[in-house]
Amino acid sequence: MKSHTSLQFLFVIYLVISVTCESFPKDEVWALITFKEAIFEDPILVMSNWNAIDADPCEWPGVSCSVARDHVVKINITQSAIKGFLPPELGRITHLQELNLQSNGLTGHLPPELGNLKHLEELRLDRNKLQGTVPAGGNSDFPSNVHGKYASSTNSTGLCRATQLKVADLSYNFFVGSIPKCLKYLPNTSFQGNCLQSKDLKQRSFAQCGGAPPAKTHQAFNPKHQPSEDVAKQHQEASKPAWLLALEIVTGTMVGLLFLVAVLTAFQRCNNKSSIIIPWKKSASQNDYTAVYIDSELLKDVVRFSRQDLEVACEDFSNIIGSSPDSLVYKGTMKGGPEIAVISLCIKEEHWTGYLELYFQKEVADLARLNHENTGRLLGYCRESTPFTRMLVFEYASNGTLYEHLHYGEGCQLSWTRRMKIVIGIARGLKYLHTELDQPFTISELNSSSVYLTEDFSPKLVDFESWKSILSRSEKNSGSIGSQGAICVLPNSMEGRHLDVQGNVYAFGVLLLEIISGRPPYCEDKGCLVDWAKDFLELPEVMSYVVDPELKHFTYDDLKVICEVVSLCIQPEPAKRPSMQEVSSMLESKIDTSVSLELKASSLAWAELALSS
């Protein structure tokens, strides 16, 4: 009898567990898995146990459920160095009360779907790298005193719909635009350290915000005013004299003829060139597309690798040395050839358009023209359809990145003289890119991770983030496609890559500080490197405080030159910053990188020389 009772008891427990597991909303599990897939870097593996096979996420790290274990109510992943973006699917976790992801490396835009979280009370996303506007939506102009009473209008979108939101911290990101009125009830500290339009808040400098103008707000359309405007317009047209109407007709006809001639000329130029046709897929139907004709001469001098050769070289693409939301970087060795770094673009074939192909090829051509001892050399590219592949192949610098040497315990290999050689090499490379090319070239994200070091520690500037340029340029042109027909696209008619020369100069100043101090551009305990160093740059008696404590020796005269250059490069007003030609000239003329000078300055240099040889 006892045995029978025990079996009944176990059966009841099994049923309860089964019902609990089956009752857990699949949307919430799917949203969490989507969030995990949006994270491309998880160094401490905080999300490693998030597994779609386990239908009950209540035991996953950073996830808390309700008492009944039927809904996710908290996500708390702070200071975990995760990098990625916030997917809109998070808005499906409808019972979420707290979302705490502060002090990570999250990028991209803040999804307006978070406004669907009607139970959200606490939102902490401070100290990330989020961009764009704070999504308030159509009714973002609610006065702060009506929050919660009218902000739940069905017409509102974005965070204005989160009527239970009591605590929110969006500080120290890169948000632009203005603070929505429906969020004005939050303290000012919730928005400081961004790029917002606010005179009352401490915001980032113009240079830190990339020199981009703040987002403009658009005035809402008012249908009540439309009839009067139409009447006024009709009245104005009716009052025009006959000669003016005749002149407008003649002018319009001439403009139309000129446009027609230009179109015919362009098509004739296309027909005279050998071209390839790339379908612009507009829908699932294979018959609904616009053809984009691309000049096949664009890449005639660039080596094209097969995916199979690169797969063999990179050990089945298992040797990953870097990643971003848009790409993966592999290291490999060509058979009988050099070591290579391969950037594979992360995009699905169904999302690949004719304009993306066009700008991919233009970017390959731009990178292939770079030829300097201090810039990374593009060896070729890979373009295949099965499987869909778009890759860039660079010559690999065997000593890794400057970032690794400065911050991962290998700084001892970088003596003062070696650091000065690296500084001058980077300056020469930037001078070449900015001033010695027919069409100037800038590095998309200039930092210590974009500087690779050769076996003899010579720096090579590599623009591994150039894929972002391809995306942005393609998005600007995507709206100009017609519904049917073909478009002739010539290389000189394409928008060039974004040039931010003054942004490169500022970034070079920050990079100089990083090289001489051994500190990252930003860290939690010491904050922004530039803010920390400003107190020492212009005071000779404390200038030496910026020097990396791991260095046993440095040259004070060199340090003064470096600090002078840094002060010039980080000027808040871009127009006041020097050109890289001026910077390179200052560094080369005032810094002596000969070994003999270092040996004279300190007997300790003998030991450093032995270590670095």
Task: Describe what this molecule looks like in 3D.
The protein is globular, with a radius of gyration of 29 Å. It contains 15 helices and 23 strands. β2 and β3 (72-76) form a beta hairpin. It is an alpha/beta fold and 613 residues long. The protein has a 5-stranded mixed β-sheet, with no helix packed on it. The relative contact order is 0.06. The longest helix is centred in the middle third of the chain and has 31 residues, at 242-272. The protein is 33% helix and 15% strand.
Please mark out the parts with pLDDT under 50 across 5 or more consecutive residues, or reply none: 1-22, 138-155, 212-240, 273-293, 478-491, 602-606
- Sheet with the most strands: spatial strand order: 2-3-5-7-9
Shape: globular
Which structural class do you get from the secondary structure elements?
alpha/beta
Estimate what percentage of residues fall within beta strands. Answer: 15-25%
Radius of gyration from CA coordinates: 29 Å
Can you summarize the main beta sheet?
5 strands, mixed
The oligomeric state of the chains shown is single chain
Q: How many individual helices?
A: 15
Number of distinct beta strands: 23
User: How much is the average pLDDT?
Assistant: 77
Helical content, roughly? 25-40%
C-alpha end-to-end distance: 84 Å
Offer a concise description of the structure.
This protein is an alpha/beta fold.
